[in-house]
Design goal:
It is a single chain. By secondary structure, the chain is of the alpha/beta class. 43% of the residues lie in helices and 14% in strands.
């Protein structure tokens, strides 16, 4: 099996440096036409420059590939829509969207400003929403599309000083979960990448150059591409870094049922070990699965057979 993207059009946001650049180069090497989107700002989101995006385009073209640069700010709906229109005018379709653009404004919750919190949410969460919405109808009409959101261990597990970033990174998983359901009949798959790599995002946290070398961007991009081809999975959270690959899953325990006369805080607390036991845990496919499970337990208590379907 060889993963290729010949004649496909890929948009990668935040593709001027780091992971985004690595993703874009990997797609181009495997035949894709690539939109190199990058505002060209600093790590905290300040400033703007087209230099980085143009350099990536030139690198791709020097190797015989096809790419165009775009400086849209992902928090600006009009600029995002213009970016997608540019891709459509150049190549007539959009097959893959990789939502990679991001900034950091790390501070503990009590010390961080609400303006910084909002900006981080706007870039990571709303930027993903705006870009995905701009390509969604195109992918529906094509009856094909691949969308990747970029999440983080900071959101899934927590990281001191990153309440803003972590909130946004969990938010994109909520977006993914519902888009999977809405895109299924149109051939659209939506997945999440949880990367860790030696980029400028980590330059203040890791000083050992040997560790940074091990955490190569290329190892992460190898995982990313598996979420984007015609045989890509759906609703997968792929974790990638330093040559390691794993999957995070959101599980729900089997839980218990308490009859009405026992539904007190004290009884819930008394049964907490059984409530939190992972024995029999599974990953619900949609929110209604949880409701159906609880209702089925209640009906069973009263000897009522749940209705079919």
């Amino acid at each position: 099996m060889t993963i290729r993207f010949d004649d496909q059009v890929v948009i990668v946001t935040g593709a001027g440096n780091g992971l985004g650049k690595s993703h874009a180069l990997a797609f181009a090497e495997r035949g894709a036409k690539v939109v190199i989107n990058d505002l060209g700002g600093a790590r905290d989101g300040t400033g703007a420059s087209s230099e980085a995006a143009n350099a990536v385009v030139e690198e791709i073209k020097s190797k015989g590939g096809d790419a165009i640069a775009n400086g849209a700010n992902v928090t600006n709906v009009e600029e995002v829509e213009a970016m997608v229109a540019q891709a459509m005018e150049a190549w007539g379709r959009v097959d893959v969207l990789v939502n990679n653009a991001g900034i950091l404004r790390d501070k503990s919750f009590v010390k961080g400003s609400m303006d910084d919190f909002q900006l981080v949410l706007d870039v990571h969460l709303m930027g993903t929403v705006y870009c995905t919405r701009a390509v969604w109808d195109i992918m529906r009409e094509q009856n094909y599309g691949r969308v990747v959101v970029t999440t983080s261990s900071s959101g899934m597990y927590g990281n001191f000083g990153q309440t803003n970033y972590g909130s946004a990174k969990m938010g994109v998983l909520g977006l993914m979960n519902t888009l999977v359901l809405e895109g299924a009949k149109y051939g659209i798959h939506v997945n999440a990448l949880a990367p860790t790599a030696g980029t400028r995002m980590l330059e203040d946290l890791i000083s050992d150059e040997r560790v940074m070398d091990i955490m190569s961007v290329e190892s992460v991009s190898a995982g990313l591409l598996t979420l984007c081809d015609k045989d890509a999975p759906n609703k997968t959270i792929l974790c990638a870094g330093a040559g390691g690959y794993a999957s995070t899953q959101i599980l729900e325990t089997e839980g218990i049922y308490l009859p009405p006369e026992d539904q007190t805080p004290e009884n819930v607390r008394a049964n907490m070990n059984e409530i939190t036991s992972l024995e029999g845990a599974n990953a619900p496919m949609m929110g209604g699965d949880q409701t159906n499970k609880f209702v089925a337990k209640a009906l069973a208590h009263f000897g009522i057979t749940p209705p079919a379907g």
